[in-house]
Amino acid sequence: MRMTRPSPNPDARHTPISMDGNPTIDERANHCFGCGPANPQGLHLTFTTDSSDPNAITATAHVRLDRMHEGPPGHIHGGIVAALLDEAMSKLNRPLNVLAMTRHMEVDYLRPAPLYQPLVLISRHLNRPHKADGTPGRKLFHQAELQHPDGTVLARSKGLFIAIDEKLLALAGLTQPED
Length: 179
Prior knowledge:
By secondary structure, the chain is an alpha+beta fold. Helix content is 13%, strand content 27%. It is built from three helices and six strands; from the N terminus they run αββαββββα. Strands 1-2-4-5-6-3 form a six-stranded antiparallel sheet, with helices on one face. β5 and β6 form a beta hairpin. The chain is globular.
């Protein structure tokens, strides 16, 4: 029996060649379950962001899921609904020029979300409180909805995202250190 050593990269068979070396944040996100085009099992969401009003930033995606995402017969699994809402809210961080991660999220499942039908995913930035010195704080508050095209809300969420410290990003090699 031939012995093989484990690969130093457990995801080697799923990692695009473009990730060799020192990939950018966008290249690393290329495999994101929600929006990554390189993830064969991903949702492949494409968002349109409107940041024309900095106080009312929105992100919108059109969704049509199939049986691979089924929970109750004919309907989207609740965990997938939560993933859709989380992904929509996370898309609001980019126009705010911040890399942030979900800290807390609440989901209200209002109606079953059907498979095979066009649905709309809409997120809105709520606020980012400032610190005592007037600089933006690390907490970002967003909300999102999964809707029928007629506007009927199927699920709604609110989320708290925490901005990752720029110095930590630079130490991790995800951004260039500031001078």
